[in-house]
């Protein structure tokens, strides 16, 4: 096979493009600028760490099922771990979001990083709502009947029905986690490609 | 036994408390979480990050 034929292969082109934009030393850097030493980024990492716990405990709940998580002490413990890791997830994510908002973190061609973060936040709310209505108890019945009017009023009812327990469970354990994990991956890769946004004074004149 | 130990710290087995101001209403639990988030955000901005000065000196 000639060199020009090899260069035309999609695998060759994809590899060159991927490693051109994101070489290994950029993907997993040894050092970071001093302004990355900030608590705001700790909350970004805490968000990712808590989503790992959310997915792990969710897998355990999926294995044993609703009777287990409602009645047995072990099930209720894992159910509580699932709930509280979601609480930490949202808590950390909101602080990270506030920090990035006041840093105007979309500067310097980082708009897509900001947009993926915002879409992640909105998708997380949908994931949490579908989780609330998938508990299979009176709480989930109450929430679904109360929330359906808002969803139907917004037009979202054309696509999904909060009273459809099976649909909501599938959204919660398959569709939404897939979207969230994909978006988290894209968000982190974009941060690595573009780098962390510098402070205002170090970026004067190059804000747009 | 375990649920007794953890459940005894705060009794959550009652209807929620609500703060009402004109047409605005918020549960005490949600208000506490929002206050905690704002306090943590301010602390994250003001508290020095461990090792930051050392890293700056090395650069």
Describe this structure in words.
The complex is a heterodimer of chains A (208) and B (59). Chain A is built from nine helices and no strands. With 208 residues, chain A is an all-alpha fold. Chain A folds into two domains: 67 residues; 94 residues. The longest helix of chain A is centred in the middle third of the chain and has 30 residues. The model of chain A has no long low-confidence stretch (mean pLDDT 92). In chain B, strands 1-2 form a two-stranded antiparallel sheet. In chain B, strand 1 and strand 2 form a beta hairpin. The interface between A and B is medium-sized, with 16 and 17 residues.
- Tell me which protein chains meet in the greatest interface and how many residues each side has: A-B, 16 and 17 residues
Number of alpha- plus pi-helical segments of chain B: 3
What percent of residues of chain A adopt helix (DSSP H or I)?
Answer: over 70%
Distance between the termini of chain B: 54 Å
The amount of beta strand of chain B, in percent, is 5-15%
| Strand order of the biggest β-sheet of chain B | 1-2
Average pLDDT of chain B? 81
């Amino acid at each position: 096979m000639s060199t020009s034929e090899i260069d035309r292969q999609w695998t060759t082109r994809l590899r060159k493009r991927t490693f051109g934009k994101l070489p290994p030393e950029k993907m997993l850097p040894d050092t970071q600028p001093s302004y990355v030493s900030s608590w705001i980024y700790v909350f970004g990492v805490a968000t990712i760490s808590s989503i790992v716990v959310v997915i792990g405990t969710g897998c355990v709940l999926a294995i044993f099922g609703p009777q287990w998580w409602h009645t047995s002490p072990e099930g209720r413990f894992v159910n509580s771990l699932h709930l509280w890791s979601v609480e930490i997830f949202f808590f950390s994510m909101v602080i990270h979001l506030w920090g990035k908002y006041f840093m105007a973190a979309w500067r310097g061609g980082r708009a897509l990083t900001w947009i993926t973060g915002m879409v992640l936040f909105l998708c997380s709310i949908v994931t949490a709502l579908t989780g609330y209505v998938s508990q299979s108890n009176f709480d989930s019945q109450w929430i679904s009947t109360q929330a359906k009017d808002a969803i139907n009023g917004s037009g979202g009812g054309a696509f999904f029905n909060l009273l459809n327990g099976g649909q909501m469970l599938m959204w919660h354990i398959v569709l939404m986690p897939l979207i969230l994990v994909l978006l988290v991956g894209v968000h982190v890769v974009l941060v690595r490609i573009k780098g962390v946004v510098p402070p205002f004074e170090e970026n004067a004149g190059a804000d747009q | 036994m375990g649920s007794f130990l953890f459940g005894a710290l705060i009794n959550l087995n009652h209807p929620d408390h609500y703060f009402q101001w004109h047409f605005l209403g918020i549960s005490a639990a949600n208000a506490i979480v929002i206050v905690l988030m704002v306090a943590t955000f301010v602390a994250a901005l003001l508290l020095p990050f461990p090792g930051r000065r050392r890293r700056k000196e090395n650069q």
